[in-house]
Amino acid sequence: MLSMIVLLVACNGDQEFQQLKPRIVVTPEVLDFGEVVVDYSLPGQVKIINAGRGVLEIDEISLNGDDVFTLGDVPVTIPGDGTYDLDLSFLPVDPIGYTSTLSIHTNDEDDPVVPVTVIGAGIEAPTPDISCDPLSIDFGTVASGTLSMQFFTCTNLGGDDLYISEQIGAGGGAMQVQTDLTGDVLPPGQDTQIVVLYAPTTDAGDNGTITLSTNDPDEPTTLLTMVGNGGGDFDYPVAVVDCPSSAVPRQTITVGGGGSYDPNGFEPLTYYWTVDGPYDGIDSTTSDTDVYVQLDLAGSYIVTLQVENSIGLLSAPTVCRVDAIPEEQLHVELVWEDSNDFDLHLMNGDGSLFDAVNDCNYCNVNPNWGTSAATDDPTLDLDAWQDPPGVENINIDTPADDLYSVKVHYYEASGAGDVVATVNIYLYGVLEGSYSRVMSRNKVWDVAQISWPEGYILEEDVDLYTPEYRYCE
Fold first, then answer.
1. Same domain, 63 and 95
2. What is the pTM of this model?
3. Mean per-residue pLDDT pooled into runs of 10, the chain (473 residues)
4. pLDDT at 213
């Protein structure tokens, strides 16, 4: 008799255990959003039912197919006899049909993966399209006790009526919004204005926003920003510049602005670069985040970056200085304006112009001088007909003991008459002499003599003259 009671209890326990299993039921099996106007979003729901008494654990819910369907919050568990409404949305971007598969993975042993087909179709129809210009107003500096007025212009660029359901202002301080567009309807092509007055009572700065809620399908809310007198606690975009502090002439360096950011998230940023240097012909090209600067001359290059955020507010300028310092002990530069042809000559000893042995120039770019290795030989590194025009230089790494002469020949004019030429002489990386002269075509300027190793520079006081030769023999 006792054994029969134990057996009955065991059987009842097995039945109770089986009844605590979860069982998933999903409805509908096909979620059809129907036809939805392109760029409008339509919500939908799939009901997940736990028809068992055990806890239904959700391992994963995935959505695979066209990415116009979006999942809402996903449950972790559903208790016995419980339900959960799983939210989805459909936002068609083209007038075509779309399909996707919703897969629900659970601990239901009998039905571990339940698929739901999700379909919908986009259709074309006129829609409103709001465009406000500008998206931000910066009143700049306004004296306390005075009044400044600016305005936003909002236009309906779409093909259907734009309904402005709400206008909300936040902050602003001394900024007074004079226009309330709540309830306004803008037909296609029509615009309206929001007038803002700024009457600061202190110099501490102010900021504020206006939020417009509309029936624009892809831009249901529009945020307008106002700042004045520095904006108070408003955070402007920040320009961050990464550049080397020094380099050598004839290099092209990269100055990066990729670290720039907007604390409020108004991105992407637009980059505005300026480059100032020893001469006007700086070769610089820009990309989205970087500027590439060709250091053709020795001297200081000032690279400045300002970034503009997506609502049109500018950062303060950030400045980077790069010093181009010659590595050679003797570095001679020639610079001129206009598209004319000048030639730089560096001579040793008593040689004459275009002497193939003693004259370093465009047709004798690396003569053999001195008695040691090539380090005491001059080299013409930049020629007028190379990039960029208007710059030439001759360098000697370690000059031999000698007397060197610097000369300039105005070889050919290209439509211009007299032109100013400038020669810079660097000794051991330091600018020791800078000389300028107005020159005429086919004239020679004896600039200076350099005594080495003393490093003395003697400027020559000689009239311009016509050379015996105009080119190398």
1. yes
2. 0.74
3. 40 52 94 92 94 93 92 92 94 94 94 95 93 96 94 96 95 87 97 96 92 93 95 95 93 94 95 85 74 90 94 96 95 87 89 84 88 83 64 93 94 82 96 95 95 94 90 74
4. 97
H runs (alpha helix) in 319-409? none
- Write down the pLDDT at residue 421: 93
Q: Among 294, 300, 289, which Cα is nearest to 245's?
A: 300
Residues comprising the chain, all counted: 473
Q: Of 202, 231, 260, which marks where a domain is finished?
A: 231
- The DSSP secondary structure of 284-336, one letter per residue, reads EEE-SSEEEEEE-SSEEEEEEEEEE-TTSPBPPPEEEEEEE---SSEEEEEEE
Q: Containing H/E element for 379?
A: strand 379-382
15 belongs to a structural domain? no
Contact 212, 130 (CB under 8 A): yes
pLDDT of residue 372: 66
User: Can you give the pLDDT at residue 39?
Assistant: 86
The neighbour count for residue 276, using CB atoms within 10 Å, is 12
Residue 280: per-residue pLDDT: 62
Last-in-domain residue among 270, 295, 324: 324
How distant, in Å, are the alpha carbons of 116, 185, 300 from that of 166?
Answer: 38, 11, 55
Q: How far apart are CA 280 and CA 391, in angstroms?
A: 11
**Hey, what are 257's tokens?**
């602005």
Q: Which residues make Cβ contacts (< 8 Å) with residue 352, sequence separation at least 6?
A: 358, 359, 468
Phi/psi class of residue 76: alpha, beta or left (left: φ > 0; alpha: ψ in -120 to 50)?
alpha
| Both tokens assigned to 27 | 């409805």
Question: Count of domains in the chain?
Answer: 4
Residue range(s) defining the domain that contains residue 306? 246-324
Q: Are 137 and 197 in contact (CB under 8 A)?
A: no
Check residue 405 and give its pLDDT: 95
